[in-house]
Amino acid sequence: MGGYGLSDGVMAETLLEHVKQNDLPSIRERIQAAQRRKAESKYGQWGVEAYESFLIQLDVLDNTDPEMTLQRLREQGLYRLLFGKLLSMERTEDAVAVVTEHLTTPYERLQVLPTLSAAGHDDTAVRLAQETLNNQFDDQLAHWLAECYTTRGDQNALFDLRRACMQHNPVNHIMLRSNKLPRASHPSTRHKLQFDLPVFSSSAQKFPDKSEQQRVILQLRAQGWSYREIADEVGLHWTRVGQIVKSMRTNTG
């Protein structure tokens, strides 16, 4: 396995299928030596994790006490792998605690929350994603959360997420486009998260706060949306949209 410094052309999975018990100590020693070299490299963290992932598999073959594996991961600060190991041991509460305490950025949580959801803990994964976005908004994490809401059929949560996207990205916000509402096509340069949004029977239902409605209209207009497109989005006639835009520009001009 050239990238791991064992032997060219041999992948870790293949090696583990044919390894003998008495070969494990020497294999472990070589992996650990390669891992130390990676740790000394300026950009070697990815390699450290890759080697450690292999060592975790060796621990299982070698009947190493799982607590020793967990302690090693904690000492190295390899919290994503620690999370995965705890989850595989069905220690969900401990795994979630690792996420809460150590994997706090949107990028880090996006690496583990889908795994947590797939393991049958969707409610917890969604809650953690919501908390993360409340503290630090992130487009990719919002996209994942939108997919969760779509799967659940939670239309109200989808709409709230769309509004949050617009608030955090006033110029280049993510378009969370409703597949239920008639919409014209838009240039591919727009970033979109496409999923169903609730259909409102009136503008008053969708925007009980008129100032919020006006703000949304101006934002969409600034993005190059036509009056008709905006009208479909906010639930007004396109001529009324035009009147609002002109009125707001006059008042702020």
Explain the overall architecture.
Helix content is 66%, strand content 2%. The chain contains 14 helices and two strands. A two-stranded parallel sheet has the order 1-2. The longest helix is centred in the first third of the chain and has 17 residues, at 24-40. Residues 1-11 and 171-201 have low confidence and may be disordered.
What topology emerges from the helices and strands here?
Blueprint: H1 12-18, H2 24-40, H3 45-61, H4 66-76, H5 79-88, H6 92-102, H7 106-118, H8 122-135, H9 139-152, H10 155-168, E1 175-177, E2 192-194, H11 203-206, H12 210-222, H13 227-234, H14 238-252
Parallel strand pairs: 1-2
Are there runs of 5+ residues with pLDDT below 50, and where? 1-11, 171-201
H/E element string?
HHHHHHHHHHEEHHHH
Q: What overall form do the CA principal axes indicate?
A: elongated
Strand order, largest beta sheet: 1-2
Give the oligomeric state of the chains in this entry, treating copies of one chain as homo and distinct chains as hetero: single chain
Mean pLDDT, rounded to whole units?
Answer: 78
Whole-angstrom Rg = 25 Å
Number of strands: 2
Number of helices: 14
